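Annotators were shown the component list below and the corresponding predicted structure, then asked to write short factual statements about the assembly.
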Amino acid sequence: MFLLLPFNSLIVNLLGISLTVLFTLLLVFIIVPAIFGVSFGIRKLYMKTLLKIFAWATLRMERGAKEKNHQLYKPYTNGIIAKDPTSLEEEIKEIRKSGSNKALDTPEFELSDIFYFCRKGMETIMDDEVTKRFSAEELESWNLLSRTNYNFQYISLRLTILWGLGVLIRYCFLLPLRIALAFTGVSLLVVGTTMVGYLPNGRFKEFMSKHVHLMCYRICVRALTAIITYHDRENRPRNGGICVANHTSPIDVIILASDGYYAMVGQIHGGLMGVIQRAMVKACPHVWFERSEVKDRHLVAERLTEHVQDKSKLPILIFPEGTCINNTSVMMFKKGSFEIGATVYPVAIKYDPQFGDAFWNSSKYGMVTYLLRMMTSWAIVCSVWYLPPMTREANEDAVHFANRVKSAIARQGGLVDLLWDGGLKREKVKDTFKEEQQKLYSKMIVGNHEDRSRS
Amino acid sequence: MGSSQSMSEEVRELVSKTGFSSDQIEQLHRRFKQLSGNQLTIRTRRTQLTWMATRQSSWAFNHSSLQTDMFTSKENFNNIPDLELNPIRSKIIRAFFDNRNLRKAPNGLADEINFEDFLTIMSYFRPIETNMDEEQLEHCRKEKLRFLFHMYDSDSDGRITLEEYRNVVEELLSGNPHIEKESARSIADGAMMEAASVCVGQMQPDQVYEGITFDDFLKIWQGIDIETKMHVRFLNMETIALCH
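Structure shown to annotators:
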């Protein structure tokens, strides 16, 4: 048959065969360890090499910048302005004092009162705590990904070649490999769980289900080249508990589920997600809600309580923030999952942005674009801390308990602990918050006004 | 690659026009992009009513826009939660689009503002430099006070009338549901009379006080060091490596 082929397609054939062999070998090297949960340490080696290259690149840039007299080191701030911490009362009194010659104990409305609110308004327009949590964190050093650095400038030929090489490796070598792995992982998950679903209920079914789930998540982890360090694994969630974690991206699920066997909670989607969800629930009981049921908080709480009370069922995995935050802070935890009364196992996840930014800005990128970006980054490096379990104390209400858990997670992960609601990404501030400041001011004016009219 | 050259020319122009440093301008530019959703301008969306009103006289325009603008316009500033807590939020947002503040016209509101306009408004809150002389200080102070005056004087006639004064007081006290409109009114009336006595002195019983002019306004604020307080201080930038 070889003789029938013309000469130049011999080269093509050889190329094709060698590529196939290469890919098969790689798949074997990656999938087999995933099945058994062992690791050859290839990814850690990869990470070390990358770090060395980044350090070299930064040195080159410094040298190049000095030669050309560029400004390489840019001022870095975590916020633009210094906000005055003085309170409403103090400031207004101060302004009035410096102005009129009247006695201080006859407060009433003054023309200058508008000033405090005006300045506060300006400050928040210039810089506020909440809006900046919803855009990706800017890196301080360059990691050869032009997407994290907005001012790529031509510094030297060697650096540009390196960057070009990086692009080639990432898009032409790593990307197809990762897509192949992801495809394998997802299809194995669907097929495996459906097959396990046919087994009769019993210990064998549970055993198989657990291992099918773990194997497929591990393959997906390798598909993203995620290098995860787990800390304090003795605190891992047990049956009948609820696992809560901070949310940065949909990948969080894969990261946590590859190290433990959880029951997922969520809304049933259509399309591919829906197929996966329906297959998964055949093998073991996950808690999926129809779209209409999601709004009914009572129903949700009931089903979760039911699940939690059955000690044979798996720990539930929940992300109480409700939306993706950019991994510099933890926002308000919704109290629903803390009202159920089960043991809470907090988990803190912190990504290292040097290798690839894992934050999903859902208003900027769709799911497919996001996954492509993930798969063309160098790697996803993160740390997971399992914190000791917490329970709600006797006289504690759900909101307080939620805040306690949130602080523990923020402290461990080195994130800022914020009181604001993650839902502010899409909705407006609730009216209850608005009224407080206004009430304070009006009390100052009117309360005293009443005193005066009485005297 | 190469775009920084043209940027620095624009930046230089803005630096000389508004007085911010180039770093501050870059920071504010990023903030502007955040607020505008990466568009070139921040705009207000108006209802059919106000659009028609712009065709009529400016007086009518301002009055109708006062009613509909504050409640139905969806603006990019809505995305800032901290701003919601501010009782005079709508006045502050309006100040951004006020043509008098933008130095474009003696009255009216702009439909949208670009980055240069944004910086112009921000420059009213620039801190005072220590190397300013008397004249510059006086000018600075006047500009800042003029900004505040425009906040009160919503119909741009150069006077703060009783009606406008009441409007501001009501807005400031709007958050408290226990205060009735009547008490807010009486507070405003009392304050207005005081202001009148400062500006005009003793009035004849049949004299009508038309309103606070800008000069009267300046008189009231005499003694208050507004220029040292009316600024937003930029943080001291520490240099950490950010590859350029």
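Statements collected:
1. Chain B touches chain A through 66 residues (CB under 8 Å).
2. Residues 4-159+213-241 of chain B form a domain with the Recoverin; domain 1 fold (CATH 1.10.238).
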